[in-house]
Amino acid sequence: GASAAARILKDQPDLVVLDLMLPGEDGLSICRKVRGRYDGPILMLTARTDDMDEVLGLEMGADDYVCKPVRPRVLLARIRALLRRSEGAAETAPESQRRLQFGALVIDSAMREAWLRGQGIELTSAEFDLLWLLASNAGRILSREEIFTALRGVEYDGQDRSIDVRISRIRPKIGDDPMHPRLIKTVRSK
Description:
The structure is a single chain. This protein is of the alpha/beta class. The protein is 42% helix and 14% strand. Strand 4 and strand 5 form a beta hairpin.
């Protein structure tokens, strides 16, 4: 745990699997330290099953959160989904769909960056993927199941609220009023 942050920043791996309970320094503080300078996906792996731990992990910048004991195939599927999103989204998008603009908000999938009134927006990898998915489906209602499957590559379990957490973090970053959103709207039971 003590040397993890420095190693992640130095090596810039394709993906980080980070246990919350590490000797020396816990996974949450490592995630918080590296998130601003590491753009790759971070998957939190932990024995803790408390919802608040999951919410905290996602708010610290984790892209996914898996509780132990984890089935190896499920872990591998989640890792593949995270890698697919981080590596393939920009490469497979047609040139005309690599940059979308909604008023003062510009989202570029090739650069994996977004700007509001010309100012860069700090987004985690998972936040960018969700924003791009919603933006590229503008005007269409996406169910929680569709979003979950598109972003994680696995079926929605009916209880995971990580999408809700990400949307609540994205709204203020893109200049959307959380109380009266205009850009990302939630449609009840849809």
